[in-house]
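Encode chain A's predicted structure.
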Amino acid sequence: MLNILIMRVSAIGDVIHTLPCVFLLKKLLPNARISWVVQQKAASLLIGQPFLERVYVLPDHFLYPKNMRTTLRITKELRAVQWDGIIDFQGLTKTSMLLTFLYGKKYGFDKNNARWSLSTLFTDHQTTPVFSNIVQKNLSLAADAAYDLAPYKSCPAVHTMQPAFQLSVQEHDKQAVQGWLHDNQIASFIALCPNTTWASKHWPTEHWVDIAEQLAQQASKERPLVIVGSSFGQAAKDLVKELSNNNIPFYIMPSWHLAMTGYALTHARLVIAPDTGLLHLCDYLGIKTIGIFGPTSKKQHGPFLDGDNVQQAIQIACPHFYKKEHGDGDVNCMTLFTPNDMLLQINTALK
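Encoded structure for chain A:
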């Protein structure tokens, strides 16, 4: 029985991009017990999932002095296990520091593919992946680690594993979602998810309002608009305010945890979002999406598992590629994709 630890502590999208690796490891190492160490903000996606033996939850910013007591306690629990394999899918300074205290063979990316090139000093085995999408990159590391632990003769393609991909939701959580849909007489809906962590990734609020107005004019009761994230993101808060000011009808999805929100989104006809965790969660769950990509690459970081989602993702040419903030003199490239362009994409997707 092999004990495997996955290290992908953040962010939400990165955690989702790593989920397929669990199912690959289970396929290649059927007797393995797989655990995961993750930060609090993404933990609700993993806690209680039957495909994981245990989830170790670190505080967000777990190296900050105020969080050090909790971090030391979790590190002590991790040190109590003799891991057969510890797979660091991030290669960051913070994950490398954690690795130094743990027992077991350690796997990570080579210096050209790790987020921090010196992270190779903290791993025993480095992988040089060949990939176009980040999901492929992660699967490459998982497959390499599995082969080192127990050499296999053949490795399954990701699409052959997809039917096994899952995200379990507690029955009472399902009932809460169903109750909200029933109370609001919503059978299916179009979800607008404007929040994202980088300022440069945001599609302008006025564009969201414009497309919401056009959709509201077209929509019937069978296709209402639902705004996701108004309790935790300024972009969604701004959108709710502007829609209210313009008397555009919409619903606000309650502030549920990630797995519950994912279950709610399985009832959506379409989810529209920039490069953000919810977009990647929808692709993992097979929910129809339109992703808006500007300063990040849709080919590398966009939908990968659902072919329609891959085709429907938008790539806007951005001079400030991979900049989190707009610099002085930078053109906000996200304005270049207009609401009329989006409406054409929506109509194509809903066919």
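The chain has a mean pLDDT of 94.
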